[in-house]
Request: fold
Amino acid sequence: MTDTDSKQRLTSAMSEISRVILGKDRQIRLALSCLLARGHCLIEDQPGVGKTTLAHTMAQVLGMDFQRIQFTSDLLPADVLGVSVYNRDDGSFEFHPGPIFSHFVLADEINRATPKTQSALLEAMEEYQVTAEGQTRALPQPFFVIATQNPSHQIGTYPLPESQLDRFLMRISLGYPDSNAERQLLEGEDRRQMIQQLAAVFNSASLLQAQQIAAGIHVSPAILDYVQAILQFTRESGVFETGLSPRGGLALINAARAWALLEAETYVLPEHIQQVLPAVINHRLPLQSTQQDSEAPRSAADHILESVAIA
Reply:
């Protein structure tokens, strides 16, 4: 598959997803960028705004094997990773892979599970492998986790620790639809039926190629200077409790590469960095309490965009 073929497929994929997820072109583009950058996506919002529907739609359009895990307070790590079952015929234990062994995994309402179960995802999301009962097993490629999260003030939720949040390349929010999109939703057919009618634009092999193309998008020294200036600002400005780690800087570059590919560019521009910046860093940079208590609170990305000049 050539670069041109990949770009055409990505355009078709965005169009197909937009048939179901109405009026959310930016969020769709961010979610696709996250996948192309070989990251994982966290969607945080109120129940009922289309978080799970977006995940189902992406899996269908991208032609990926799909598993949905409903996270609850009694979910155990073995329910996610798998378990060994005794085989009476030969007296051995046989490992039965859990739902994590899939190309596309939806961790629905991830913050309803206990921290112990949440931690079962850490190795899988970072190293693309699972260690269970002393044996390490590789996960299928491509591998993508998209998790939904209810607002932390709602009953029955457990906050995600910083180490878990950092495993997500992006955190996005869908928000309520505008009046025109909502009217189409109210008048139109059931979204679940529409998903089944969507054409698969990619398969596993072609999606891996698209990820390789994204990884090869050129990043100039000037763009690297800009990213390093952002990293330095987060560590020295005193605005944030902690600064961005090197992994956060890599996440920003990889996400910008993927965004550039969706824009049919062959190199990263400063505006690509700025487009993905809020989704990549806002969940990684807690503000100092003095900033949180201000009359007009601003996000981490707002502080950076106002303070760091383009190199």
About this structure: The domain at 216-307 is CATH 1.10.8.80 (Helicase, Ruva Protein; domain 3). Residues 3-20 form the longest helix (18 residues).
